[in-house]
Amino acid sequence: MNKSLSEQQLNIDILRQAPDVLRKSFVTVAVSAAVLCAPVAALAVAAEGGLGDMGAVGANADDALRFHIEQRLRERAAQADETTSLFYLGRAYRPAWDDPARVEAMLAAIESVRVHGLDPADFNPERLRRAAAGATGVEALAERDLLLTDTLVELLFQLRYGKVDPRSLYREWNFTPPPNPYERAGELAAVMQAGDLRAAIEAQAPDLPLYRALLRGLAHYQALAMLGDWPKVAGGPTLRPGARSARVPALRERLLVEPESGLDEATRASTHYDPALVEAVKGFQVRHGLEADGIIGAQTLLALNTSPAQRVAQIRANLERLRWVAADLRGDRLLVDIVGYHADLVLDGQPVWASKVIVGKPARKTPSLRDSVVNLVFNPKWVVPPTILREDVIPRAARNPGYLASQRLRVVDRSGQSVDPSTIDWAGARQSGFPYMIVQQSGADGSLGRIKFSLSNPYAIYLHDTNARSLFGRAERALSSGCVRVEKPYELARLLLDDPVAWSAEALQAALDSGRTRTIPVGREVTVLLHYSTAALDEQGRLQLRNDLYGRDEPILRALATQRSALPR
């Protein structure tokens, strides 16, 4: 029954290549066939006196243990994740935990998940210790082996892909899901073959600069949280450089605990918002993704008064997010940083384009999505989406008969024929249903500007130019109804068209100036990631913790505390 390593790997490779529809049947048949092929004497003893009597007829103890592992896997096949079954199939059901040192290595790795913002209690280490210490007899040893392997499967899954299923929080979530059990069985086998098991386990966490910075930040804020809270700055009128206020000493005390504040403790009682304190505030604002203007407004005050314990929680939420999306943060990608109001295009491992963006307001959030640009539309018409139609256009048309004309909006029926707006009961349109579409003709002053980047999602979310370019001058740019407005659309268009001869800057400008609506396929397909994160790296690679624009951190933290693992059962 012993198999070489290459034969074990072949089993896993065959399963990976099998069509999805056949895999479950293959596993069931393979497990059943293995049982049928067990030694006749052993099966006879099992039938008469139970598997525990196999040793009485001279059956090899190792064969008995394999038989118990195999049978137990078959009994639970309908309820359990298949990863463990496939792993044991690949090793001919040999036990995996003969070496006590490897059990201790996994227990040490479980304790270390704290540094990743995960909870060791999820893996019940005390139960593992009891099982490892007290197992006697082949049945107990088989259960012990399976328990340890099941726990390792769970541990690897949480470290690499996260504990929480993001689909339970976001209906539109479509980032790359965790791989199937057949691939994960291969990953499990590779970890188990490592000489240093603990290091192999810990290496499963995302290897990303932001993830590493978050780990350091978590340790930093956990240490601060153990010392208690820091001084709070009272609310009040906006505090501007040069002002004098009774709130300034608390502001100074708060910033003295920040790294690199540069403040002199001798001035801690001063009520003067002096230049040194202004510079310290600007540094704080940069580290928290705020406009570095030295003005203490609502957003800066919120960041100042966020406690160390709250920062710990924020970092835990962002570590979990990164585990969800790590697989997509490699290769060519157009990443829209929703909270940072920024987009970057990476091609062939190099950043080639960056732009400010405008995203959805909190009442009309830009969703987290994985998508791709399917085409570019020059001089696009705008068909008003249902939400904007219902919440914005119809009420305004009801209040102001001239509103549609002022915005160059035209009412059309389903056949495309124009409808006279004066014939419509606008006051009752929201209640009775609206059988028409409202369209804005193309043009530089249209809501979509001169270029639309069409995506494939069903939510009418896309990227586009805008006729309100002055809004990019604002620091806080959550202003749209969900779509993403791009400050530098022309450069992005040329990169995606990927034909510098046919689409030179002059050729693109001529096509736009023609006023003709044209749909052009992209020359280079690029993954688009609309990604929400309240943590980022600044231009110097330092961790930046930002205010939670859409309030999405807290649901993740609740799910981490209450949900079962996303590992399929």
Notes on the structure:
43% of the residues lie in helices and 12% in strands. α15 (308-325) packs across α21. It has an 8-stranded mixed beta barrel. A hairpin with a 2-residue loop joins β2 and β3 (350-360). The chain has helices at residues 5-17, 20-36, 40-49, 61-75, 82-90, 100-111, 125-134, 137-161, 181-192, 197-202, 209-226, 248-256, 275-287, 298-304, 308-325, 386-399, 403-406, 426-432, 489-497, 505-513, 553-562, and strands spanning 333-337, 342-347, 350-360, 369-378, 382-383, 409-412, 437-440, 451-455, 463-464, 478-480, 484-486, 518-521, 527-531, 535-537, 543-545. 34% of the residues are buried. The model is unreliable at 1-8 and 17-58 (pLDDT under 50). The protein folds into 3 domains: 5-204, no CATH class; 230-306, PGBD-like superfamily/PGBD (Muramoyl-pentapeptide Carboxypeptidase, domain 1, Orthogonal Bundle); 329-536, L,D-transpeptidase catalytic domain-like (Beta Barrel), CATH 2.40.440.10. It is α+β, with helices and mostly antiparallel strands. It is globular.
